[in-house]
Amino acid sequence: MEKIVYLLIGPAGPPVPDLARSLRERAVPALVSLGARSVQLNVTDESLGHPFGVAPEAGADHILAAVSVWVDSAEGRGVESALPVPTGIGAAWHGWLVCESEPVPNRDHPPGPDGEVPGFAQIVALIRPSHLGWGEWRAVWQGAHTPVAIHTQSTFRYVQNVVFRAVTPDAPAYAAIVEECFPREAARDLHVFFDAVGDEARLARHMAAMAESCDRFMDGVAPVSWTREWVYRSA
To answer: DSSP states of 170-187 as a string?
Structure first.
């Protein structure tokens, strides 16, 4: 079994009209017909606001949507042909074959009847800083940072996708793609996000610990999006 992650990357702006519906009603059946065993959709939603209240920089790359596909073999699969390409906004799909690790599986917030997972998912594309070799970078991120992230946030699902290779031309040189699911309230309340409800001192400690830990393996340039998430399983 192999996992491919596709990101729809384009300039920041209003959500793409009907993108979620198009992916759910057309892309999912098409992907299943191409051999996908499971499909996960993530689409930005205006109601979630911008991550931490900070609007994306004008002209910067922005993750508009993500599609994760699990297949028996990725080679020659061509599943990107099933993904709708919005016109007139300068966005494009890019894909990577990844090695998936799930330090925190979603055990308590199952998808609803329509496949939607409660809460929201943060999608982050990581770029390896040039001063860190690959092995050192991975050890700092997955080895040292993981327990910090789990301890300081209200995450109910945490997925680390280490990029093995690009599967589409001109894909950005991301080293990894992170998925983190949070309660819906975390989009509006940092106390919820950082697992510090009613405790200002705990909030300060958790925010400081996360910032310090992230600075060790990130260079400050990482596209981040808050999305709604749907999960579909065919086999």
So the answer is: T----SEEEEEEE-GGGG
> What b-and-e string marks burial along 58-81, b requiring 16 or more CB atoms within 10 Å of the CB?
eeebbbbbbbbbbbeebeebebbe
Paired tokens of 195: 């697992």
pLDDT, tens only, 154-190: 999 999 999 999 999 999 999 999 999 999 999 999 9
- In the chain the first and final C-alpha atoms are separated, in Å, by 12
Sign of CA dihedral 195, 220, 125, 175: negative
201 Cβ partners below 8 Å, 6+ apart? none
- What is the SS3 assignment for 17? coil
Whole-structure pTM value:
0.94
Give the position of tokens 């073999």. 73
Q: What are the residue ranges spanned by the domains of the chain?
A: 2-233
- Rounded distance, CA 153 to CA 235, Å? 32
CATH number for the domain whose boundaries are 2-233: 3.30.70.100
Measured at the alpha carbon of residue 69, what is the angle toward residues 46 and 109, in degrees to the nearest 5?
60
pLDDT digits (tens, 9 = 90+) for 59-115: 777 899 999 999 998 887 678 889 988 877 788 999 999 999 999 999 999 999 999
Alpha carbon distances (Å) from 210 to 11, 27, 87, 123: 28, 36, 38, 16
Cβ-proximal residues to 150 (8 Å cutoff; 6+ apart), any chain: 103, 104, 158
* Number of neighbours of residue 216 by Cβ within 10 angstroms: 14
